[in-house]
Design brief:
The chain has helices at 20-33, 69-79, 91-97, 99-108, 153-160, 173-185, 207-213, 226-234, 275-280, and strands spanning 42-45, 60-63, 85-90, 113-118, 121-122, 128-129, 164-169, 190-195, 214-216, 241-248. It is of the alpha/beta class. It has a single domain, classed as Rossmann fold. Strand 7, helix 6 (173-185) and strand 8 (190-195) form a beta-alpha-beta unit. The longest helix has 14 residues, at 20-33.
Length: 283
């Protein structure tokens, strides 16, 4: 069985106290506890502080263009649908530049796990406002306050067809590991939104801020109830943060509905030798 050390790459260069440290440890621990080895897993990283984890986690990994890690993850899953595939990025890349890919990944129910470092800023470029910041948030790019209302990724995922929606907090590693394991094991599109303080550029959404405004879902919570899930996800608009599995149902994933993939993964098939072989089928 693999250990967390097997998934450990280069030493991280994140700021001391950054929530990325806890997220990186949690991802490696979750994969190890699920019995995977580095060669079993594909991770598509976005660009930014979160994307730098590409060097810090030992697994098959790639960088997508900014906001484009989801298409890379989906392509990898279609090529080898027996392999667990993760997409890791920040709220700027995955909800901003990649917002269109996010919506279509939900509605297609692609069997990947999307892990979002949600800190409301573009940390790598020194703190510009990101889509999940509340209206009025002041940053380098919005010195008089953000004019737009915040994106609510939880309700977006719910209304567009995601079959697993989880939320956790970088200040609670034990909880985060548990949510990540459940998301990775889920068959279908899984969103894990992680409340991740940026200690350098975001002095509003701090560890103390989230500790005061977050709560863990009770055991009586019905994660399969759409109406209850929407009410819980909508709390994000009012700066109230439910932690746990907010929604989970079963629905066929995208690759399971493709007859072309029913026999064997694409990666296991013998490739065509050339154009002439393809043309021969039409002669």
């Amino acid at each position: 069985m693999s250990t967390i050390q097997d998934f450990t790459g280069y030493a991280p260069t994140w700021c001391p106290g950054c929530g990325n440290w806890a997220i990186g440890i949690s991802i490696k621990t979750a994969l190890s506890q699920l019995g995977y080895s580095p060669s079993d897993v594909m991770i598509a990283f976005d660009i930014g502080c979160s994307g730098n984890m590409n060097d810090f986690v030992n697994a098959y990994a790639t960088h997508g263009l900014h906001g484009r890690s989801l298409p890379v993850a989906i392509g990898a899953k279609l090529a080898n649908h027996k392999m667990p595939v993760l997409a890791v990025g920040g709220d700027g890349g995955l909800y901003g530049e990649g917002g269109n890919h996010f919506l279509h990944a939900c509605r297609g129910n692609h069997d990947i796990t999307m892990i979002v470092h949600d800190n409301s800023v573009y940390g790598l470029t020194t703190g510009q406002v990101a889509p999940t910041a509340q209206k009025g948030y002041k940053s380098k790019s919005t010195p008089t306050g953000a004019l737009e209302v915040a994106v609510n990724p939880l309700t977006l995922a719910l209304t567009q067809g995601a079959t697993f929606i989880g939320q956790s907090f970088a200040g609670d590693i034990t909880h985060l590991i548990d949510i990540l394991k459940k998301a990775i094991q889920h068959k279908g599109f899984s969103l894990v939104n992680i409340l991740q303080p940026c200690v350098t550029f975001n002095k509003v959404y701090t560890y103390q801020y989230y500790l005061k405004r977050s709560y863990k879902l009770p055991e009586t919570y019905d994660k399969g109830n759409l109406q209850e899930a929407f009410a819980t996800c909508e709390e994000l608009n009012h700066e109230k943060f439910a932690l746990g599995v907010l929604y989970e149902i079963e629905r066929p994933s995208f690759h399971e509905q493709l007859s072309q993939l029913s026999a064997t993964p694409l990666i296991d098939r013998s490739p065509y030798k050339g154009v002439s072989e393809i043309l021969q089928q039409f002669i």
